[in-house]
Inverse folding.
């Protein structure tokens, strides 16, 4: 339940901040830059949580075993991730 609340708050804050920043006068940023920055922030927090739960020393082994060691599972998750990135780009396009 906590994860759903956090995701809801994150999406609401993203919509408010994006609407405000797109309405400011001046040069507009690229939607792909905003999507890449958002995904970079998520990656940072994921690595932070993984290092907290498994330790910094075991972080590389966890990534190696869970991502590169399970190629089939990673490939299955790559397809929805690709469409999620397209959805985010279209969302920014719709906001402008």
């Amino acid at each position: 339940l906590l994860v759903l609340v956090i995701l809801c708050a994150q999406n609401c804050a993203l919509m408010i901040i994006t609407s405000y920043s797109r309405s400011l006068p001046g040069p507009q940023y690229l939607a792909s830059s905003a999507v890449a920055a958002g995904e970079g922030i998520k990656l940072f927090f994921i690595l932070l949580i993984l290092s907290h739960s498994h330790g910094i020393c075991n972080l590389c082994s966890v990534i190696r075993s869970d991502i590169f060691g399970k190629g089939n599972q990673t490939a299955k998750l790559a397809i929805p991730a690709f469409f999620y990135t397209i959805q985010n780009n279209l969302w920014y396009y719709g906001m402008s």
The chain has four helices and no strands. The mean pLDDT is 85. The first helix runs from residue 2 to 23. The radius of gyration is 16 Å.
